[in-house]
Amino acid sequence: MRGEKRFEYRNRPTKIMGRVLIYASIGPGPASEFRKLRMEPGDLPTGLLMGTVEIVGCQGTVGNYKWKLSKPRRLRHPVPPLKHPQPVWFYPF
Questions:
Q1: Least buried of 17, 48, 73, 83, by fewest C-beta within 10 Å?
Q2: For residues 3 and 9, what is the distance between their CA atoms, to the nearest angstrom?
Q3: 36-49 b/e with 16+ CB inside 10 Å = b?
Q4: Distance from the Cα of residue 17 to its chain's centroid
Q5: pLDDT score of 34
Q6: CB–CB of 84/90 below 8 Å?
Q7: How distant is the alpha carbon of residue 60 from its chain centre?
Q8: Quick check: pTM over 0.90?
Q9: Contact 47, 24 (CB under 8 A)
Q10: Residues 32, 33, 37, 40: what is their CA dihedral angle, to the nearest 10 degrees?
């Protein structure tokens, strides 16, 4: 949400362009990754919609795609989704 991440790497392409929601997953990830950032699991929110970003492009080869990201916007207050996320896309409201 700080605008540092310019690409999202995925194994499939996307035709979706425009603004999408950013969801902080329920599982915080491995503790070793938090230590690298001098943080602990639980220091960051989980299971919430945190903001939006624009997908402005997609390029790559089979199994190795990068989605170009632009204009992140953080929500003033994280929002819990009404529906549970699915592996690829979900509709939270």
A1: 83
A2: 16
A3: eeeeeeeeeeeebb
A4: 15
A5: 86
A6: yes
A7: 19
A8: no
A9: yes
A10: -60
